[in-house]
Amino acid sequence: MKTYLVTGGAGFIGSNFIHYMFRKYGDQIRIINVDALTYAGNLENLKGLEEKYHYEFVKADIRDKKAISAIFKDNDIDYVVNFAAESHVDRSIENPEIFVETNVLGTLIMLNSAKDAWEDKDGNFKEGKRFLHVSTDEVYGSLEDPDDYFYEDTPYSPHSPYSASKASSDFLVKAYVDTYHFPAVITNCSNNYGPYQFPEKLIPLIINNALHGKELPVYGDGKNVRDWLYVDDHCKGIDMVLNGGRIGEKYNIGGHNEKQNIEIIHIILDTLKEILPDDDDRKKNVSEDLIKFVTDRKGHDRRYAIAPDKIKKELSWEPETRFEEGIKKTIAWYLQNEEWMEHITSGDYADYYEKMYGRR
Ligand code: NAD
Ligand code: TYD
Asked: Residue 8 Cα, ligand 1 centroid: separation in angstroms?
């Protein structure tokens, strides 16, 4: 039985990954989820897993050397999947420091702890060990020419403190491969959407605001383009790269689904109108009149677009969920999980919202 150490598994993609893996492998695998439970970590995302599967939660910070090496000492870890990060660009513009601490220093500590546990005295690594670092397409910067795409060899050109910190962590992973022959792989994925996403990010924020009749803030002219992928398709890619990817390589993951932000907002409004029953009070809140163009994000990247040719060719990865279907599933999930959203938005989120949007 393989033992996975998943960091950041209480966040959006990490928790979806844990569900995906248990759905696929059941009790053939064991997962240890290490998460510091920052504002973005939520154990509600993982309810009931302990009773059903070989699953364990450890509250620890990836910057905590002692705690992380103790986990490696106490368990024979086969695979590390490193999701833990500060992940929101707007927060990185307000407070860059924590992004360097978690995303750069935290990743270094994960790499070093795995190296210590997996390397013998001659500098050789035990068979079958893998470290997968989960990264983003934002490290490549912003595309201007509509015919351009991000490839694995596109030079890094990050603009936000978030993407700069992720780029730094990718370079550290690469440095461990090149220097120590450390068994790592990197994935660079486009924007994800799906259940359990924290409502500071565009799609859940718009769904939540529309349902409550709150303004829908559109940064700048709303024409910035993101390449959206349903979260399970990302999880599928991570599983494939972990099990079949070549050590030292990086793989871009994306499903060629580029949309302007304003288009996304209209799709959400149309879908809400379509699927909410007429007798649901929330339906009358949903209106285009809520759309409000607000001050642009500083340094706002214009367009991201992934060329997923390599992962398709080498590992036969294909996305399974078309956007029209994925966004319906996602909206339906948020409608059915109002309590989940209420728990999140009733805490510090209100202060965050006021600070970010109050005078925008
Ligand atoms: P998220 O913010 O929803 O979750 C991050 C998780 O990491 C939370 O559970 C949080 O508690 C935990 N965490 C934060 N700091 C930690 C620390 N110091 N120690 C331990 N745990 C800590 O993020 P997400 O959207 O799920 O993203 C996960 C990863 O995927 C990130 O590395 C991100 O850069 C990458 N990524 C995200 C997207 C996207 O669209 N969301 C796209 C590509 C790549
Ligand atoms: P976001 O979900 O923060 O992801 P990222 O910045 O990592 O791509 O934002 C997606 C796009 O939506 C981005 O171009 C910024 C824009 N946006 C808004 O227009 N309004 C908002 O309130 C938010 C959160 C984002």
From this structure: 6
